[in-house]
User: What shape does this take?
Amino acid sequence: MSPPVRKILHVDMDAFYASVEQRDDPSLRGQPVVVAWKGARSVVCAASYEARKFGVRSAMPAIRAERLCPQAIFVPPDFTRYKAVSRQVREIFARHTDLIEPLSLDEAYLDVTASKSGLASATATAEAIRAAIREETQLTASAGVAPNKFLAKIASDWNKPDGLFVVRPRDVLGFLEPLPVGRLPGVGKVMESKLHTLGWQTVGDIRQAPASVLEQHFGRWGRRLHELSLGIDDHAVQPDRPTMQISSEDTFAADLTLAELEPHIRDLAGKTWAAYEREVASEHGRIARTIVLKLKTGDFQTLTRSLTPSTRPASATELADIACALRERVDRPADSRYRLVGVGLSGFVDRDSFAAQPDLFDGEEER
Assistant: This one.
């Protein structure tokens, strides 16, 4: 017997941070709200739909957002409040399934193939979740319903904001065929450009290409592209995904040299270590093997240096010492300046599998 078709939801809160601010401050409702610290070095965390009409988007420099929408109201982010609302939403999800895979504070995958609530369909479950979110948080969410994760994620964006879209198994091929190749997961701007150069504009174009030709151009990823064009995605919803990386970073009001970064690195190491102890405490026996130093130059190039020591750091001070030492591996003139620094921990493994290794430094990444 073939396994039952999965019923997957992707639930995405609408303009989450900005919507929380508008909910909690009635004077902001209907106004173009930008969640960001105002300043030349700040970036936009979120924008209300009123601000998005002017082209304001998450992750753009706040100063550009201000130029695009001079009347925007800037509100500093309050992640404590956002996390509290996220927990409320997660509790609503848990009434319907234990298979919940959070992607961030404002979105998650849910497998409702066997719904705890006993509702007749995945569509009914999505509607019930959206209704509960609206009633209990006074916020809206959009949802996609589909037989797998990547289709559900595309569907959740279809009728935003406050929308629901369903891709039924019988409709998968027809739904995908006209979509631009950039809608497929993993196809960024560079890959999209390569596919266009080869004459593949839509998902339907990729489907018509032999899998062997795609594999010839892109290796194993080509085979994956062919599967996606057919709507095939066997990745299961993974509840309580283990932590892969913890980091803290800071953008400066004025660019600094490497020599001037030490107090900032030590401060960030303390924050990263505190988050490590707090967030990984529930993941019994997992430890971080690798220390990462991230730098962004004045001209926006990103550099990373990492070290996997034979003895892992046992305190914030040791983490800071290693992160500071990684500056010596930055092959740049001493007077080079940096607008951002970050300190991270990665390479998480089970404690039992941790083994001493020789020092290993990664090469420079510039992008």
